Amino acid sequence: MASPRFEELAKRIEELRRCFLPKEFDPTGSYGDEVYEHTRAFRVLAHAEFESFIEDRVIEVVDNAISQWKAAGSITASLLAMMAYRESAPAIPESLSGAAARPAKFPSLAARVEAARTELHRYARNQNHGIKEKNLLRLLLPIGIQEAEIDATWLSAAEAWATARGDAAHKGAKMQVRPDPQNELKVVNLVLEGFRDLDEEMANK
Description:
Layout: H1 4-20, H2 33-72, H3 77-84, H4 96-101, H5 109-127, H6 133-140, H7 152-170, H8 181-202
Helix pairs in contact: 1-2, 1-8, 2-3, 2-5, 2-7, 2-8, 7-8
């Protein structure tokens, strides 16, 4: 079952489709300049929605995992992964008195978990900049999504499309290939379905 956040994403993509793409596609693939401009806008805005979705869901999964741990001591896959993938961690104290005297250097377990959550929040909110493979792995692996649970074919398609989005956002129109609106919608729907699969995986973490 899809999460409310995914349903919001799917609704938003449909809104963008209605706003920017032709109601009916030309079988010859021939369009005026305005349609190509709108298609580029659709690509850029759809990418923004995908990026926002994955960042929100990762934070939601981690926050839920920590809430379960605090309430019942439950250790979920996402909580375990968040701690395992943390790039740096404070040292283990050599004595209880040393830990008590220097809590900043030797934080408690709860403090370590909160620090790991803060780091992941910071990355998702401030440092993530897209949905390319490196971006997605940096977000998904630390919440317990394993490599085998990510469709490699979909990941490659998302990478190619995100690269094309970069061209649309950062290059002038004269430097770009005119995007076919029908094909653009097809690729966006493919990316959307991949995020649906990830959304379901995240529900189990």
